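Continuing from yesterday's entry. The apo prediction looked reasonable, so today I'm repeating it with zinc ion included to see how the binding region is handled. Same sequence as before; SMILES copied from the compound registry.
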Amino acid sequence: MLNAKTINITFLAILLAMIGYDWSSQMSPWWYAVLLIVYLNIQAYGASVLSAQFFLPVKYQGDTNSNKIAITFDDGPIPVMTEKVLDILSEYKAPAAFFCIGNRVNDYPALTRRIYESGHLIGNHSYWHGAMFDLQSAYKIAKELKDTDTAIQNVIHKKPNFFRPPFGVTNPMVAAAVKKGGYKTIGWSIRSFDTVTKNGSVLLERVTRSLKGGDIILFHDYSTTTLEILPAFLEEVAKLGLKIVRVDELLKEKAYV
Ligand SMILES: [Zn+2]
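Holo prediction written out below.
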């Protein structure tokens, strides 16, 4: 499998071979630059594509032979927006997972409780979701995850088993923090890009055109476009003969530990 360890060993071997060759018959230094550029590009791909599982194991899809799919909402809880999402889900009797940000859970415990008591799953999505989240030390990332667990535990008295990395970005520090906390990292197979898509029909088309059993879809609570298309999306899922289950059921993993 293409993962960080294999790539590091392979590139180290190539580098040593190049040094050996260079020693005996002089090579253009540009070859070292080429090697470095290729290496950095592979690292960047691994950091940004969660399903590549480059730095850590990631669950991003359920059984593709089933008719079950799961929907997930990141970045809440957000007053009004999350409430509207909950109203629609309740109307359609659709369960979902909410990957919550710790400081918002602390700010809105009643809304967090409502998510949980409505039968939805609550997962860990970091405490601050800062732009520099991934650039922190493993120690600081682990602390953010723990603080989020505490915030969630204070409300629902259960510790999340699922973590979703902010921006879907991973690296050795995130991997170390996840390992320390013992979380299952949850990705997605369909990314809606609902935070940047303002056109409802474009969004609906994107999330339904190749929808199939096993899929996990990434939405955001604060997207007005998601809110606008959510009823039509849920109707389309039913028309396609697919059934929405919670992501823990889809993946056959425990939601809490
Ligand atoms: Zn997020």
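Comparison notes:
- The beta strands are 68-74, 97-100, 121-124, 162-163, 184-185, 190-191, 216-220, 243-244.
- The radius of gyration is 21 Å.
Will overlay with the apo model tomorrow.
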